TrEMBL record, chain A:
This is Cell division protein FtsW. Its main location: membrane. The keyword Transmembrane applies. It is found in: Membrane. One of its GO terms (molecular function) is lipid-linked peptidoglycan transporter activity. It is a multi-pass membrane protein. The lineage of its organism: Bacteria, Bacillati, Actinomycetota, Actinomycetes, Streptosporangiales.
TrEMBL record, chain B:
Residues 41-73 are annotated as: Disordered. Gene3D superfamilies: 2.60.200.20. It comes from Planobispora siamensis. InterPro entries: Cell_Proc_Reg/RNA_Proc, FHA_dom, SMAD_FHA_dom_sf. It comes from the Bacteria. Keywords: Phosphoprotein. CDD domains: FHA_FhaB-like. This is FHA domain-containing protein. Residues 83-132 form the FHA domain. Transmembrane segments: none annotated.
Length: 465, 155
């Protein structure tokens, strides 16, 4: 090797992490194309011609996503290139399935692809607004307790006399000017922000104090406060609102974040014990929890099948998926309309019928990759708050998919939760788009090269962001 | 429309769906290891630094990895810009640690080496076992200790 000249080799030798904008655009176009192909396949399957709505829906979705992409390229240029395309595919397939169910049912039955497309548009708008307004996600850390209070308020708001509404046996809706909203969806986000901020401040005491017993480090009794309060909160949701899903979701997410913050297994064990205890207690006292358990253990029972709120929905879903088999019946060629509420809670079963196990696995892979990108953001994040927030949000998404897919496949008792980005429902779509905006914002911060120093030397440095 | 066409549409759609998943994994792969041309070229032509450091180096450090403490696992890709470590919110690596100062230490490149400099911290910065009292070159893989956080430079 010849003697090199004195220079700054760092400039050429170290490549900056790429922005990967082209990869993102290509993947985004690919996702939109798959969605359009799915529309075409639905039309071919149902009445042997390409549906007239294909261009409207496909180009509509493509347009929204292009707008989201442009905003992202402008305001979060270093963001992860995969998050947006993955979400686009999931959201788009959900739209196709809802469209298919709407056509299959002849417009009756509650599935409405137009409404869902409208909510997708609102979701994308909220996504872009979040990205534009929230330039530095660490501003959320200052709102720790505000977020906590907001989360609680949103959680209890359906119980208020005028505002709250009870639909399908669960009191989780509020009516606002003709719209119904599920505030619990937004409450989840607020609570995750609160947990992240709170645990950053308190994690040392939760992680370090305590005694060692056998193989696990037991925390001090007085440090059990937060976990007991969250436990009580999720039990409250379960009892007062009859909402099993949200209850499990909130408590599970808190346990996971506690584990991320302290890296102590004892918290997970304590959490599981508390949850099992709470579930058994609730199962003994409340009939609606008990009903879910009987259905879970014995869905084939004819008496249960015929009962209102019995196992009919679950069993039809299982029948549908078995009908689909490995390769599925093909889009538009199955009978997912037989499953009650196939467009909301049971959209996963409807997809399973028409795309088969192969399609479901692909879909779960897409969810898995999305969560992986979130956790990757968490690992790469440079400050503890973003680490916890990104980890918590990714876990929230993964946990939600697990709870609903596990319920639909009868792996765990069925709890009413939406499949993120797929089920029909505006509030959930809105909340999940905000979640994605937060992840994108944090991945942008994590992947951005370190800030440039304007001055070279000295103790006081000015940084350009 | 024949059965066969519908079967083909069905299979083609599933294949395309999986192709999307594989393409996504491909993007992640490039993200982790860098595209072949971009990553391989600089590794081969990385010039030897002018002043040979204490230990013989095989190349430039390319990233800073947190190997201990609450931020364990964080990786920062090194460029020609200095890296600040401390509790202050504008530090490159923000550590929440009672044993760290707001502006604790600084890492900067000079003549192909990375230098660690303590910025007058209360509890000091340690390179391996010795306290950093003046700007010191950091060899690859040697731990720098700041409070509870341990970082090292890697290729």
């Amino acid at each position: 090797m010849s003697a090199p000249t004195v220079s700054t080799p760092g400039a050429e030798a170290v490549p900056l992490p790429a922005k990967r904008r082209v990869a993102q655009l290509v993947m985004l176009a690919f996702a939109v194309l798959i969605v359009m192909a799915a529309y075409a396949a639905v039309g071919m399957g149902i009445d042997q011609k390409i549906p007239s709505g294909m261009l409207t829906y496909g180009l509509g979705l493509g347009g929204f996503m292009l707008a989201a992409y442009l905003v992202l390229a402008r305001f979060a240029p270093w963001a992860d290139p995969l998050i947006l395309p993955l979400v686009t595919l999931i959201n788009g397939l959900g739209l196709v399935m809802i469209y298919r169910l709407e056509v299959g049912a002849g417009g009756r039955g509650g599935a409405s692809a137009t409404t869902q497309l409208l909510w997708t548009a609102v979701g994308v708008v909220v996504f872009t607004v979040t990205l534009i307004v929230l330039r530095d996600h660490r501003a959320l850390q200052r709102l720790t307790y505000t977020a906590g209070a907001a989360g609680l308020l949103l959680l209890v708001s359906p119980l208020l006399p005028v505002l709250g509404q009870e639909i399908n046996g669960a009191r989780i809706w509020i009516g606002l000017a003709g719209f119904t909203l599920q505030p619990a969806e937004l409450a989840k986000l607020a609570l995750v922000i609160f947990f992240a901020g709170y645990l950053v401040a308190k994690r040392d005491v939760l992680a370090l104090a305590g005694r060692r017993l056998l193989f696990i480090d037991l925390p001090r009794a007085r440090d059990l406060g937060p976990i007991l309060i969250t436990w009580g909160l999720s039990l409250g949701v379960l009892i007062l609102q009859k909402d099993l899903g949200s209850s499990l979701l909130i408590f599970g997410t808190f346990i996971a974040m506690l584990y991320i913050a302290t890296q102590r297994t004892s918290w997970v064990l304590i959490g599981i014990l508390l949850f099992v205890g709470g579930a058994i207690l609730a199962g003994m006292v409340f009939s609606h929890v008990q009903d879910r358990f009987t259905v879970y253990l014995n869905p084939e029972d004819p008496a249960l099948y015929d009962r209102v709120g019995g196992s009919a929905q679950l069993l039809e879903g299982l029948f549908g998926m078995s009908q689909g088999g490995i390769l599925g019946t093909g889009l538009g060629q199955g009978h997912p309309g037989l499953i009650p509420l196939a467009f909301s809670d049971f959209i996963f079963a409807a997809i399973g019928e028409e795309l088969g196990l192969t399609g479901l696995m692909a879909l779960l892979m897409v969810y898995g990759l999305l969560v992986e990108r979130g956790l990757r953001t968490s690992i790469a994040a440079r400050d503890p708050f973003s680490k916890l927030l990104a980890g918590g949000l990714s876990f929230l998404l993964a946990w939600q998919v697990f709870i609903i897919v596990g319920g639909v496949t009868n792996l765990i008792p069925l709890t009413g939760l939406v499949t993120p980005f797929m089920s029909q429902g505006g509030s959930a779509l809105l909340a999940n788009w905000i979640l994605i905006a937060l992840l994108v914002r944090m991945s942008d911060a994590a992947r951005k090269p370190p800030p440039q120093a304007i001055q070279d030397e000295g103790l006081t440095q000015v940084f350009q962001r | 429309m024949s059965e066969l066409t519908l079967l083909l549409i069905r299979l083609a759609f599933l294949a395309v769906l999986w192709f999307f998943v594989i393409a996504a994994v491909g993007v992640i792969r490039t993200d982790l290891f860098g595209s072949r041309t971009a990553a391989a070229a600089p590794a081969r032509k990385a010039p030897k630094p002018v002043k040979p450091p204490a230990k013989p180096k095989k190349g430039e450090p390319r990233q800073m990895v947190v190997t201990g403490g609450p931020l364990q696992g964080t990786t920062i890709t090194l460029s020609e810009t200095p890296i600040t470590i401390g509790r202050a919110n504008d530090a490159t690596l923000v550590v929440t640690d009672d044993y760290a100062s707001s502006r604790h230490a600084r890492l900067f490149p000079q003549d192909g080496q990375w230098i660690v400099e303590d910025l007058g911290s209360t509890n000091g910065t340690y390179l391996d076992r010795s306290k950093v009292t003046r700007p010191t070159p950091v060899p690859l893989g040697v731990p720098i200790r700041i409070g509870k956080t341990v970082i090292e430079l890697r290729k």
